[in-house]
Design brief:
Transposase_17_sf; Transposase; Transposase_17; Alpha-Beta Plaits; globular; alpha+beta
Length: 229
């Protein structure tokens, strides 16, 4: 069975995930993390695709990127992956692939899920037990959103700007969101969509004609026969 093309819906952002091959580490030290972030900043600027949120984990990366032209996310990940693998292999004296196949992507319905994806991404180090508070992890966009640092890589989505009229209000509201934690149903929905490439959110609000392929899986089982009376 041929695999589906990557889902693209004009005007909607995307959640991207890339893992190390067989779960191997893709960062060995702070220099690797810093280099990847620099490559990400440069590649995003080159393809004109703003990054709303990110986290660099020891063996995978999550990115939330803006709506762009079809293929822009692929161009970003191709440039980023090629440059970083070359750097990583040269620096650590290795050869071969670093990534586990293709990166994963899913389209996000902004009103319901953009800020949920911010939270999902930036709480990843807490869920993994690397830190006890999201702002303690240096390789994510959390400290930027809390107002603890200014990250030139990040361009925030309008849903984040709507959290308050001042930077302090936005930062305080967003901090409260993270400290409240993630509802289980929200976490399950994001994980399901992120690993399968379906749309995250109310896909029936998006016309199938506006997307480049189906936005949700087909119903299971054979279609029912119509009965002629």
């Amino acid at each position: 069975m041929s695999r589906l093309s990557r889902l693209h819906v004009p005007g909607l952002p995307q959640l991207l995930l890339q893992r190390g091959n067989n779960g191997i580490g893709i960062f060995s030290d702070e220099a690797d993390y810093a280099c990847y972030r620099d490559f990400l900043r440069n590649a995003a600027r080159e393809v004109g695709l703003p990054v709303h949120a990110y986290v660099l984990m020891p063996n995978h990366v999550h990115l939330l990127v803006a709506a762009g032209e079809e293929g822009a996310a692929g161009s970003l990940m191709q440039r980023l992956g090629r440059r970083y693998v070359r750097y990583f292999n040269d620096r650590h004296g290795r050869t071969g692939t670093l990534w586990e196949g293709r990166y994963r992507s899913t389209v996000i319905e902004p009103k319901q899920y953009v800020l949920a994806c911010y939270r999902y991404i930036e709480l990843n180090p807490v869920r993994s037990g690397l830190v006890t508070a999201a702002e303690h992890y240096p390789w994510s966009s959390c400290r930027h959103h809390f107002g603890l640092t200014s990250e030139p890589l990040v361009t925030d989505h309008e849903r984040y700007w709507a959290l308050g009229n001042t930077p302090f209000e936005r930062q305080a509201t967003y901090r409260a969101m993270l400290e409240a934690g993630e509802p289980n149903d929200e976490l399950t929905a994001i994980r399901y969509a992120a690993h399968r490439g379906w749309m995250l959110g109310e896909s029936d609000l998006v016309s199938e004609a506006s997307a480049n392929r189906r936005t949700a899986p087909l119903p299971k089982g054979r279609p029912r026969r119509s009965v002629i009376s």
